[in-house]
Design a protein that fits this description.
heteropentamer, A mainly alpha, B alpha/beta, C alpha/beta, B: alpha/beta, 6-stranded mixed beta sheet, 22% strand, C: alpha/beta, 5-stranded mixed beta sheet, binds adenosine-5'-triphosphate, binds magnesium ion
């Protein structure tokens, strides 16, 4: 059953897509039908899988680094008041800067390899983590903090043993968002200057009107994204068994 | 035990002196110019109507009032050896304040973990056994009953082993029998320490206190001190205790009419 | 031959038939034969390669002549060393069966463009010849979807469409287009695709070898069109489709047979045109930004 | 003092930038100096401000719609169990799909006007809000829920009076992230098809190698982003006075 | 009062019958095959050692045990008019459960708000005055003392006006004097209702209960019922009460030795 549902969703989505294409009559060069895409998927599977591997690596690296930097950023910002005042505006700005403006600068520093792409992905991924953990760290139960103070705890010990565990649910929330945006992070990273990866393939296919190939790449990306999301979600839930978890639908 | 301030044996029987204490929350003055001694090595019990400021006084002594919490504080809190009170108190708050992500055992070991000391698991086990949580050491707080949570918090406080112990209604969620047993346990474990106990139960105060104060009125002041005879923990069936109980209840009733609940 | 001379060459865009001489030279080993180790890098943003060459991060870049004038005008130390495609590819495209039969019909209509930097100048010149101005049309940046937007009727014309590409694209999906050629509508002739180097080391010997290899590549293309197509798709499997086959065919006659050759007068004329349209402030001497390698 | 600090940060950043440009010797066509940018800012202020106005409108609209849809999505997902099972994967996929792939489809439906750009911005913005609120709604104190049940509360009433207020801090967290990414949402929308806005201007200036103008636009964007972020942050803090708020730096 | 199930006057003096109740948390059985009546229109008090399952029993009656909380439940809870218990109970939990974002007044009005009824502000004001929170109506829970929070929760429970009232240690955080006054208030406001009161204080049970049960052992069973003479609330200085207190304490001590705290 647990494996059946995604399958049903999957088939349902595909069917809806096919019907939509048939009913609305979208031209295939704008939205190809699933059949076309399946064709491209089979015909170009070698090319697609090769690029998918590159992108997956970038996603995973970007996510790992993004979460790491995000956590680090939140810790630094919340631990050092001056860092907060100075870093927060910089981080906000970093989110507002379009990639293509930074791309030449990044390539200048990091070259054309994987590094600049991963850096780009990291830049996109880390902010939700930072923001969520930062917020979570602020919302610790004041009673527990008082207790810790009387226990002669250093600021670092309070952070480590009280604030961070208490902020883990918020952190998990941020990591979930980060996981969902990680694929787009990697794809955008590939725009910076690359000759491989699904993002490259998509831009390329798009520019050359191989729309079926583009959607085949998109399809692979979507599968990776969903698989990654639910894997991370499951891992996070396991981490937070102590956290009460109910849904409004159960009220 | 490398940290000398946390060793109870080098500096014991500390008297805590509160002088000219003022505490107000945004205009509402709880007390002002309050002088108060917690006698070294003894149990001092504080009673008083709900909302009079007992918890606030305890927090003031523990050094937990800061402008951040919306309170204005004045006055000094000192000990007779001249060292600050802060970091020599074990504080048991009115709420149990168990960390929801830690097992009962880990909650009891929280202090040593926070100080980076090696945890004394044997002692924690023994204490948890004594408070009746031997079978619940690995349970999360959410799986404990109200009284069990309070007992875990008590075990954690006893675990701290500090010269000054501040406890805010530590037995309020316990049934009468368990309460007596844990009072005895606390009395035994905290003998020789300077203990300040806030309680609502006059019998508890009479059973445990060397001195009993009643905090009353707003701004709050201390009424006359009661010093029950005999060494605590006392036997409650003792007829003198029952007489004193009547006294104390009268005093509390008086405190109440001056007081808050209309 | 000793250690190979390493060259990082940035393409203007993803690999496509416009790069045939480079690909063929790479695949046939013409670079290697001359002791070169060439790495071809494709960007997603056509404006990045010249910047990176100017910054010394790449050795050579495939770029466009109009952009070269603008870039040099903005102070980038760039210099043209070779020509890949010696005619304009750019064109104004409308639907063949659409309402626009001549440029004059564009009045009040929407024209899509993919920002390249000088589409407005080209369009302005073309409109001017028919008594219109840029104010008479609505210009819309359609960035990634030049042909979809015209096929879907979102815009009435697109400027910046490549005649060897978008026209085929439209034809394949059954919406054939009609192209208006800038060089026939008042825009001076120019080189579409050129190779630029950093001015500081334009005369590096490796550059001459590189251009020679391209020349050999072009020659091979002309002599063995079918074999070179096979080479091309073998190296770029994802390009093996109808569109690229047709584009390949249509691009072949447009490659400069003498990539190193340089017509200074043509560049000077074009600079004047750009100045007239406000894209550059001064007309610099041609030798400032284009040379013929010795 | 409260107004002074941002000013100091601002001047500090500019100074750091100027010094960096001077020391590292980045060429101005990759990273122009603040002086160059200031020049462009003054010289082209009219053009810049015009485009900035368009972008600001898109950002604000996108943010409003994104937060609205995000909140709505989270409510629907958490309120209806089937919606959750079916919608969540779709939402995750929606995050992984690069905008440029969707762009032609969106443009086909919405045209090149403001609508498609606001739609694009909304698409980028709503997910952090959805994810955060969804998580927040799950973490309501079970005790309060039990109490509400005994009080004969309908599911809707529990949602409205218990779960939503309790989830507001998490929601605020999500809105903060959304606010930070809103500008990029609008800019990406403008790349895909537009004839005005800072994103358009940047593309244009970039193609013309007017890097100083591009950075001037970027600068305006950054100012808008930071101002928007802190305005939203202040508004959210006012909304959540009941929420204990401490910083590890104060421990 | 359009909802007939919430009107106390149409269906009053409901007896609640618990039959064959079983409750276990992951293998640990709290009670099994438990039969228990809460007599209609009377106060039934339940005492028992900490952790024996009093709160769990109350939650079972309130309909708040679900597999989601990790508990396995069996048995039936019914009333003598055949209608379900759920939605006719007012439940006051061991924790005060005040919504931190609502003022004291709004917390008291939470029930009507949740049911979409027009809030009876006058009654809420009056109740808050009576529990001594007249000056704190607009305070957030965080600004209240422990006892004040409990009083707010009590006011909210009384506000509910349901035929069946389940209270889990509603007076545990109050001082002796306030406690007596609020016991009287509760007795007055809940007269004629079916009240189940969990308490740790034998005197409280003796003062308020028509019937007193002691829950003991694991799996827990009910000991013999005590039915104090006279109508509650009784005078504590009554000598019979003191005698009964001794009895009850003995029973509790027995319960305890069979029980959990070692
Ligand atoms: N969610 C839970 N998961 C596992 N065990 C639980 C859970 N809730 C309660 N228990 C267990 O059930 C037992 C009874 O708990 P309950 O809260 O009913 O006790 P109680 O009689 O009310 O005690 P107290 O007087 O201390 O409040 C305890 O041993 C407790 O550990
Ligand atoms: N954070 C706060 N903000 C405003 N007022 C507060 C705050 N904390 C406590 N008070 C007020 O201070 C007064 C005393 O509170 P305190 O908790 O000290 O009472 P208490 O004597 O411990 O009462 P109880 O017996 O009910 O626990 C109360 O009237 C309360 O409203
Ligand atoms: Mg208190
Ligand atoms: Mg209980």
């Amino acid at each position: 059953m647990r494996l059946l549902r995604p399958l049903v969703i999957f088939i349902g989505l595909i069917a809806a897509w096919q019907i939509a294409v048939m009913l609305i009559g979208v031209p295939p060069f704008i939205l190809p039908s699933p059949a076309d895409v399946a064709g491209a998927l089979i015909k170009r599977q070698e090319v697609l899988l090769g690029h998918a591997g590159v992108t997956l690596l970038e996603i995973v690296l970007g996510l790992a680094l993004g979460v790491l930097f995000g956590a680090f950023g939140a810790l630094v910002m919340s631990y050092f008041a001056p860092a907060r005042r100075w870093l927060l505006p910089v981080l906000v700005i970093s989110q507002a800067i379009p990639v293509f403006a930074l791309a030449p600068v990044l390539v200048l520093w990091l070259g054309f390899g994987m590094a600049s792409k991963v850096a780009m992905a990291t830049l996109i991924i880390f902010f939700p983590v930072t923001a969520a953990l930062f917020d979570g760290l602020r919302r610790t139960d004041p009673g527990l903090l008082d207790l810790a103070r009387t226990m002669n705890a250093s600021r670092g010990a309070i952070l480590r043993h009280i604030r961070i565990p208490a902020a883990l649910p918020a952190f998990a929330s941020g990591v979930r968002v980060a996981t969902a945006v990680a694929p787009i992070g990697a794809i955008v990273g590939e725009w910076v200057g690359s000759s491989s990866g699904l993002g490259f393939l998509m831009l390329h296919a798009n520019a050359r009107m191989q729309i079926d190939t583009m959607f085949a790449a998109l399809f692979l990306l979507a599968i990776m994204a969903v698989a990654l999301y639910f894997a991370v979600d499951a891992a996070l839930s396991r981490l937070l068994t102590w956290q009460p978890d109910t849904q409004p639908s159960e009220d | 035990m490398t940290d000398t301030t946390s060793s109870p044996h080098t500096v014991s029987r500390l008297t805590v002196r509160v002088r000219g204490a003022r505490l107000a929350f945004g205009g509402r003055t709880l007390f002002d110019g309050l002088d108060f001694d917690v006698a070294g090595g003894q149990w001092t019990c504080v009673l008083g109507p709900s909302g009079v400021g007992k918890t606030s006084l305890l927090r003031l002594i523990a050094g937990l009032t800061s402008p951040k919490t919306g309170s204005e504080t004045e006055g000094t809190v000192s000990t007779d050896d001249g060292n600050p009170v802060f970091h020599r108190v074990a504080y048991m708050a009115q709420q149990d304040l168990l960390a929801p992500w830690l097992s009962t055992l880990d909650n009891v070991l929280l202090g040593s973990r926070l100080r980076g000391e090696p945890p004394d698991r044997d002692r924690a086990h023994a204490l948890l056994e004594k408070v009746g949580l031997g079978a619940n050491m690995s349970d999360l707080p959410a799986a404990l009953s109200g009284g069990m949570r309070q007992r875990a918090a008590l075990a954690r406080t006893l675990m701290e082993d500090r010269p000054i112990v501040l406890m805010d209604e530590p037995f309020s969620a316990l049934d009468a029998i368990t309460r007596v047993r844990l009072q005895d346990l606390a009395a035994e474990n905290l003998s020789g320490k300077t203990v300040l106990l806030v309680t609502h139960d006059p019998l508890e105060a009479l059973r445990l206190g060397h001195r009993i104060y009643v905090l009353a009125a707003r701004p709050a002041t201390f009424d006359r001190v009661i010093e029950p005879t005999g060494a605590p923990p006392r036997n409650l069936h003792d007829s003198t205790v029952l007489g004193e109980q009547g006294d104390l209840l009268d005093q509390l009733a008086r405190a109440d009419t001056e007081g808050l609940v209309s | 031959a000793g250690a190979a001379d390493k060259l990082t060459v940035m393409l203007d865009w993803f690999v496509n038939p416009d790069h045939a001489p480079l690909i063929v030279a790479q695949e046939k080993g013409f670079f290697e034969d001359r002791g070169l180790d060439v790495e071809l890098v494709a960007p997603a943003d056509a404006s990045a390669p010249p910047k990176l060459v100017a910054a010394g991060k790449a050795d050579l870049a495939v770029s466009y002549q109009p952009q070269l004038h603008v870039q040099v005008g903005e102070g980038l130390p760039l210099i043209r060393i070779a020509t890949l495609v010696g005619t304009p590819l750019n064109s104004l495209v409308v639907l063949r069966d659409g309402p626009v039969r001549s440029i004059a019909d564009l009045k009040g209509r929407k024209v899509g463009f993919s920002v390249g930097g000088f589409e407005d100048a080209v369009l302005g010149a073309m409109l001017a010849k028919h008594g219109l101005g840029l104010k008479d049309v609505e210009l819309i940046n359609v960035n990634f979807s030049l042909s979809p937007s015209i096929i879907a009727g979102q815009v009435d014309a697109v400027i910046g469409a490549f005649r060897n590409f978008e026209l085929n694209q439209m034809d394949i999906v059954g919406k054939p287009g009609r192209a208006f050629y800038p060089e026939e509508e008042g825009v001076p002739l120019y080189d579409e695709l050129i190779v630029v180097a950093n001015k500081a080391n334009a005369n590096r010997p490796a550059h001459r070898k590189f251009v020679d290899a391209i020349e050999a590549g072009v020659q091979f293309l002309v002599n063995h069109p079918d074999e070179s197509w096979q080479l091309f798709i073998a190296a770029n499997k994802e390009l093996d489709d109808e569109l690229n086959r047709r584009a390949w065919r249509d691009t072949l006659p447009r490659f400069a047979l003498r990539p190193a050759a340089f017509d200074a007068g043509r560049y000077a004329r074009f600079a004047v045109f750009l100045k007239e349209h406000g894209l550059i402030e001064t007309v610099q001497p041609v030798e400032n930004y284009a040379i013929e390698l010795r």
